[in-house]
From TrEMBL:
Domain of life assignment: Eukaryota
InterPro entries in UniProt: Ald_DH/histidinol_DH, Ald_DH_C, Aldehyde_DH_dom
GO molecular function annotation: oxidoreductase activity, acting on the aldehyde or oxo group of donors, NAD or NADP as acceptor
Protein family (similarity comment): Belongs to the aldehyde dehydrogenase family.
Name the record gives this protein: 13958_t:CDS:1
Organism: Racocetra fulgida
Length: 63
């Protein structure tokens, strides 16, 4: 859940956190709850949606 350390802090190691969402607005809100933003990743089959979400994320790098 979003209260876990891995969801709130930058973990420098080979880890990944996965979070479910129902709307684009919800995922952007969840992503912006952390005070860090070094990197983010977007996984979807819809390239248009991926670009839209990537442009909305406040992160140093978005894959």
């Amino acid at each position: 859940n979003e209260e876990m350390k891995i969801m709130q802090e930058e973990i420098f190691g080979p880890v990944v956190s996965v979070s479910k969402f129902k709307t684009t607005e919800e995922v952007i809100k969840k992503a912006h709850l952390t005070k860090y933003g070094l990197a983010a990743a977007v996984f979807t089959k819809d390239i248009t949606r991926a670009i839209k979400i990537s442009n909305m994320l406040k992160a140093g790098t978005v894959w």
